[in-house]
Amino acid sequence: MIFVLPVTIPANTARAAAVTADLLLAPGVITKVDVEFPSGCVGLVSTFASRGASQIFPTNAGQEFAADDETITWPDEYEVADAPFSLRMTAWNTDDSFAHTVTWRLTLRRFPGPREQQLVAAARAQGFEVLEIPTAADLIEARSGDLQVAIP
Q1: pLDDT-based confidence at 148, cuts 50/70/90?
Q2: Which residues partner with 107 through β-bridges?
Q3: d(CA 48, CA 130)
Q4: pLDDT digits (tens, 9 = 90+) for 13-34
Q5: Are 37 and 70 in contact (CB under 8 A)?
Q6: C-beta separation of 95 from 135 below 8 A
Q7: Does the model's pTM come out above 0.90?
Q8: CB 131, CB 25: distance < 8 Å
Q9: Of the candidates 31, 40, 29, the residue with the CA atom closest to the CA atom of residue 101
Q10: Any idea of the CA torsion for 61, 67, 73, 74, to the nearest 10 degrees?
Q11: Residue 134's pLDDT band (boundaries 50, 70, 90)?
Q12: Is-contact 57 49, C-beta < 8 A?
């Protein structure tokens, strides 16, 4: 599953007045993160992600990402196993002339089986709407009819 969140930050947005945007996630493990800075940001746009009260990307609190015409990408194994099932992206823009949009992309591997069902129930109990998305195995099984298909 890939989750995408573009965050547009107006010109002259100080860190103290940063824009925040929440990205709702499914229970699972974040396996890859991309933070895309378009051309023109020239290091004047900064962003970080947090979950609950803790900053998680970048890992060291008080730091942030800033770049120009670059996508910062890394593999990860960050587990989203309990509430909140969301990340908060915080961003600011010290460019005095132009708004900029930073795009966050997260690849998430959903938890399989009973654990996923427990976590989905917990998310729903907290008021989150959880969409059921079929897996590749579900789609193959639905199309196979009487054919028995085993997928490891």
Answers
A1: very low
A2: 2, 32
A3: 25
A4: 999 999 999 999 988 999 999 9
A5: yes
A6: no
A7: no
A8: no
A9: 40
A10: -30
A11: low
A12: yes
Grouping H, G, I as helix, E, B as strand and the rest as coil, residue 125 is helix
Which positions ≥6 away from 46 have C-beta within 8 Å? 15, 64, 65, 66, 91, 92, 93
Query: In which residue are the tokens 């099984």 written?
Result: 141
Q: What is the Cα–Cα distance from 152 to 150, expressed in whole angstroms? A: 7
Q: What is the rounded distance in angstroms from the CA atom of residue 89 to the CA atom of residue 51?
A: 9
- Which amino acid, one-letter code, is at 87? L
The length of the chain is 152
Query: Coil, strand, or helix at residue 50?
Result: strand
Q: How many CA atoms lie less than 13 Å away from 91 in the CB half-sphere?
A: 29
Cβ atoms of residues 90 and 45 within 8 Å: no
